[in-house]
Amino acid sequence: LAHLLPLPPPLLQHKQSAERVG
Description:
Layout: H1 9-21
Region (Disordered): 1-22
C-alpha cells in the first residue's frame, strides 16, 4: 500500500507502528 500513499516507507512504517501501539 506504500505505493498508494504519499508518504515514504519510513514514515509509513512509523505510522503503522504508532497505530499498533496506540
